[in-house]
Write the structure tokens for this entry.
Amino acid sequence: MSRSIILRGCLALSSTLLAGCATVHEQAEKSRIYVANESSNSVTVIDGVTFKVVGTVDARNQSTHDLALSRDGKWLFATNLASGRLSVIDTQALETIASIPTGSRCHVVTLTNDNQHAWVANIAEDDISIVDTVSFRILGTIPVGKGPTGLAFSRDGRFAYVSNQGDKTVSVVETASHRVIKTIPVGTNPHFLVLGPDGGIWGTNTGGNDIYVIDPATQEKIASLEVGPNPQQIAFAYKGIIGPNAYVTVGGVSKVVVVGTDLKNLRILEQIEVGQRPNGIAANPEGTRVYVAHEVSNDLRVIDTGTGQSIATVPVGRKPIRVMISR
């Protein structure tokens, strides 16, 4: 093989590697952290690299509580407890462009796996509103248990799981028929729900001291673990090469409790001291950082999961509740 051919091959390989690095860097530069501020009726927008605030969006409603981001990152949906409305935020303009009435004290919002619908849990009506993510119109409602406060979809999208704080249960909804097919007892004041890396549905019993896991294959609660009083939300990240692990904000002890995800041996691996009353938590796509919102100090801490140390603190609005990361 001639030297010129080898050189051209090396140059082509170098160009490909550089293009790949540039793409990764570009994606990192575009990453954003969104924080819902319940008492400020707003969403703080933070640069995912510099951790600087790039804007604050007025939700144009009261008690901004939960967030869901469209797959393309174009729309951010925000529930507003006191207004009973879903705000639609244009993430490029950083402006609320629609306000959709769903029900009294709409609590959480989650997008279906195909991104076509936003499901909104309404506490007072004990139902779920289904919102079209293109027309922003309500298509219908689904009755669930008493006081729905958490919502997550199975990995295949066939089922939705709704935690009902009044009933101490989780409703299993078949997404195709919009029917509740099973009700699972889980514990005191079940709240947050999230799809885990193992395909299980992880939840917190905020009125108690434990977390639990539901198996979508059997529709049964298959594991639980005491983590401390008032567990709030869960994110999944790595500690070095160990993981993924569940990072749980535990409001009653002002800690993030790290739990291994081996369901046959569910156990606490680490406890990280954070600020007073941690609530919202999210992880970056790489699983090397978790972002923790504190209701009392009104800030967001960036935690390095490798060391368990805080590497940045960002002031946000009053009573930050939910954290969402762009992918």
The helical segments are 3-30. The longest strand covers residues 231-239.
